[in-house]
Amino acid sequence: MPADIQHFHDAQSGTLSYVVSDPETALAAVIDPVLGFSVVSGRTDTGQVDAIEKYLDKYNLGLRWILETHAHADHLTAAQLLKGRRGGKVAIGEGITSVQSHFGKLFNLKPPFVADGRQFDHLFADNEKFRIGNIDCTVLSTPGHTSDSVTYLVEDAAFVGDSLFMADFGSARCDFPGGDAARLYDSIQKIFALPDDTRLFMCHDYPPASRQLRFEITIAEQKEHNIHVGGDADRQQFVTMRKARDATLALPALILPAIQVNICAGHLPEAESNGVGYIRIPIDEL
Questions:
Q1: Does residue 206 have a pLDDT over 90?
Q2: Do you find a cis peptide bond into 208, omega within 30 degrees of 0?
Q3: Residues 263, 99: Cα–Cα separation, whole Å
Q4: Domains and CATH numbers, the chain
Q5: How far apart are CA 68 and CA 82, in angstroms?
Q6: From the CB of residue 55, how many other CB atoms can be counted at a distance below 10 Å?
């Protein structure tokens, strides 16, 4: 039986999260779960996790994996909240260590923080295999947007993180530390080398007024219609376009709290002597 895939959309960040499950064993993975966060009040919102839990309960699914496609800059991960409620291993690509090294210095994080990935339960290498129940899965390293970006292959489905968007929106920015437009182009070509009928599941969609939200698209459609990498777009054209476009983009609204929490696998800052945890905001650094 093929894997079941259910999407969940977080309107605040435009993020798409997924539950992927094996009907035979009733075991599941959650990909890129979102913890809502207000920069105005500092309060968290568990609405998406609550919805995911209702889905797990509805189908009596056991959670085995909580998979991050990369350390997101636009939302806080709910990985630890979900793990605390449901169990499962929190995993990400092994490139996370370079992201931790850069941002650990930016936020002046002190021990017990160490930039070696130990905050996660597992770090995936390129082409590493794992299973969701009886379903064989493969991890592809697809850096470019960030140095830790990976794609999860589950049968004919590929969860590409931020490497690609819907064809009418193009591709991800590459101006974050560790980002590289040439590497992103190469990673997209790696994805495009998969069969044309492979279903790509987006981490974000920003639909124009002319269409509704979409979360799934085939490689064939991306190859033909993607405004950044479709058709005859070559590597140098892509790099030139990406650098010019990235120079015009504002930083994501949640980048400082998001990165700070996400490089720690979703562990929120420890409470201080007054029982309150605090997000660090570096001044005049970004």
A1: no
A2: no
A3: 7
A4: 4-254 (3.60.15.10)
A5: 13
A6: 15
Give the pLDDT band (50/70/90) at residue 1. confident
The bridge status of strand 129-132 relative to strand 135-141 is antiparallel
Sequence length of the chain is: 286
* Residue showing tokens 């993975």: 29
pTM equals 0.96
Cα distance between residue 184 and residue 192, in whole Å: 12
Q: Name residue, tokens 């064809």.
A: 167
Is residue 35 within 8 Å of residue 49, measured between CB atoms? yes
